[in-house]
Amino acid sequence: MSVSFSGFVKAARCLSLFILLASPTVATAQSVKEIHSREQAWVAYFNQTRLTNRFGLWLDVHWRQTGDFIDRPFQLLVRPALTTYIKDNVRINTGYAFINHYPAEGFETTRPEHRIWEQIWWNQKYKSFSLLQWIRLEQRFLRNIANDELQEGYQKANRIRYNFMFAVPLKKQDVVKGTPTAVLSNELFLNLGENVVYNTFDQNRFFIGGGYQFTSSLNAQLGYLNVYQQEASGNRYMVTHAIRFYLIHSLDLRKE
């Protein structure tokens, strides 16, 4: 691992911590906040398929379990999109997402959510590592629920997300077939809009783990995910310790 990568990692972690602690919502609730924890398992499949020089398709599907990691279902997420290629390493996504929020222990009703989302995604390769980033906007529509029963209508919310991920090949200069990698990423979520009262800061996701490039188009990642999330009340926080496994599939269907 090069000195330059170590510097990038330290700077990125310090930046994420600064943003988290500088949030006014966190600061005001600091003295009275309640922190709870849970264990989960996250599994996901990502696919990016390039159809032409300008257009392609995006799909990611997530299944999440909770309660001693795998006791009961937590979330199902399906997120398709249309991709527009600005450059080979710069892409814009516009899509839809469906999420099933399964009931907490002691409840019975599954809560559906619909999202419209837009994203700019860019990837930059350096001598000894690559840096992937994206900024995503989400317009969320959560089905109203009360007394463990679905109600008419939807609660609307907006959110912005920023993600960065470092991938360091451990054997070669580039991530090619048969290459293991070290992976470190962080994603910050902020709520937007007039209906946000106590929790402008939504959550932070920090991941550290390893990856393996099986073929030129298929990559897998496995590691530890820490999610620090503020609930709507403003003084309650949930810390999630998760095992995360991602399968990442990139296809290019253009004619040579």
Features:
disordered N terminus, Porin, eleven-stranded mixed beta barrel, 256 residues, mainly beta, 10% helix
Describe this entry's structure for a reader:
This protein is mainly beta and 256 residues long. It has a single domain, classed as Porin (Beta Barrel), CATH 2.40.160. Helices cover 10% and strands 65% of the residues. It has 2 helices and 11 strands. It has helices at residues 3-22, 24-29; strands spanning 34-50, 55-66, 72-87, 90-101, 111-125, 130-146, 149-169, 180-192, 201-213, 218-230, 236-252. An 11-stranded mixed beta barrel has the order 1-2-3-4-5-6-7-8-9-10-11. A hairpin with a 4-residue loop joins strand 9 and strand 10. The chain starts with a helix and ends with a strand. The model is unreliable at 1-5 and 24-30 (pLDDT under 50).
